[in-house]
Every structure is written in C-alpha cells, then in structure tokens.
Fold this protein.
Amino acid sequence: MFTPFNALAAALWLYVPALAANAAPVLIAKLPFFKRISLPIWPARLGANKTWAGLIGGVLAGMFTGWLQLVLTPWELQTGFGFWIAWSALISLGALVGDIVKSYFKRRIGIPPGGAWPVVDGIDYVVGALLFGLPLFVPAWEVAVALLVAGPILSLFANIISYMLGLKKVWY
C-alpha cells in the first residue's frame, strides 16, 4: 500500500526516463547532428513537427537518463543494468509513440500542429509509457494513478519553461 507521496515518488523515479524522452525532442532538434536527420516521420498525417530526429533523440535521451539514474543511485538496483536500460528505452519509446498517436488524432479532428488539446496533450506520453512498459513491469495502481495525475502537470510546467526559453512557440 502506497501513501500518495510514496506513490508519486515511485512514479517519478520509475518513469523519469519517459519524462526526459518526452521533453527531449524540442532540445535535440537544435543539435547539429540531429538537424541532419530531422525528417518528418509522416508529414501528411502528423505534421512536420514529429521527426525521426525527435523520436531517435528522445529515446536516446530517455536511455541516458536511465543510465544516469543507475550511476547516481547509491544502491544497486536489483533488476540490473541491462533490465534498467531496456526499461528506459521501452518507456521512452512508449512516451514518444503516445505523443505521435495523439498528434495523428489531433490532425484528424482539425487541431493544427502546436494547437492545444487540453488534458490529452499532457497525458498522451504517460499512457504510452505505461503501456509500453507493461511487458517488463506492472506498476501498482497507486503509482500509475500518481503518474497519470503528475504527468500533465509536469508537461505543462515543461512547456511553459520551453516557451520562456524560446524553444517553443506556444506555452501550452
């Protein structure tokens, strides 16, 4: 049984690679190497903002974040290095696929790239990370709920900061 604080702490710890992966594409797009592979995945259905550079770079950022967790943690995770890196890759990919699927449906209902779809814009990557992570780990329901609540709030804060830094054109 988790307290709300413990559930939130566990959710953030377990899914921080996915959070990093979701935030990374806007930063990665500015790097010289990634500019070369910044081709849209499916511009007709997703818009030009969903690129291979963002997808690949986001997964790599999530894996790097998972590696940092291992390096900076004073105790060895019982799951081991290989499991944690695979977990980080899987949930990072899930977060980005969740965002891509949401973008597909946004275009279908007429919301332009960069346009707001309240709530869905902040929960898409969380649902993707949870679903893609299921083959390796099933979180306690309290942890999943904490992530579903915290994810959109963290996404909003990240968007506001990105907007203030000039990395995004809109704050939402």
Q: What stands out?
A: Residues 4-164 form one domain. The two ends are 34 Å apart (CA to CA). Residues 87 and 133 are 7 Å apart (CA to CA). The chain has a mean pLDDT of 90.
